[in-house]
From TrEMBL:
The keyword Oxidoreductase applies. This is Benzoate 4-monooxygenase cytochrome P450. The keyword Oxidoreductase applies. Heme binds at C142. Gene3D superfamilies: Cytochrome P450. PANTHER family: CYTOCHROME P450, CYTOCHROME P450 MONOOXYGENASE ASQL-RELATED.
Length: 156
């Protein structure tokens, strides 16, 4: 029995279908890249710029690791003038961070073109791409990141 898409894959379908320009562009890109189903491989899907921009944009808007950011401080520190004692559980809200206007132009909108190199000459040229952390970073980073993205690509 075939596996049904998970929530992240459904959300990717939803956003691509909700925006006809994005849908048409993904369809054109895929039809231009592949003549038959047999040609479709994970490696080749990884080179489809707009498809991958759509996936990145979904992960920016709806980060899968949002609830997994809690960490205990190893030592006391001061952040923005607030003393944080050692052993305090701290967390970052990736959903909120990735939607802040300080980091992205039009932050609440589905705009996959922000991830394309051509975005350097658009309203997105000042986007802070280091704020993009849907799979976290460092020792808490998701080890299944590449597999998750590949799964989404293959199902689209």
């Amino acid at each position: 029995m075939p596996k049904l898409p998970d929530a992240r894959e459904w959300l990717t379908f939803y956003h691509i279908l909700r925006y006809p320009e994005a849908y048409n562009r993904v369809c054109f890109e895929m039809r231009s890249a592949f003549v038959s189903d047999e040609e479709i491989t994970g490696a080749r899907l990884g080179r489809l710029l707009f498809l991958n921009a759509c996936i990145r944009e979904i992960l920016r808007l709806l980060p899968p690791a949002n609830s997994k950011t809690a960490q205990r401080t190893a030592s006391s520190c001061t952040i923005d003038g607030v003393h944080i004692p050692a052993g305090t559980t701290v967390s970052a809200d990736l959903y909120k961070i990735q939607r802040l206007p300080e980091y992205s132009a039009d932050p609440a909108a589905f705009r996959p073109e922000r991830w394309l190199d051509a975005a350097e000459d658009t309203e997105f040229k000042r986007d802070n791409r280091t704020a993009y952390r849907p799979f976290l970073i460092g020792s808490g980073a998701c080890i299944g990141r590449e597999m998750a993205q590949q799964s989404i690509r293959l199902k689209i």
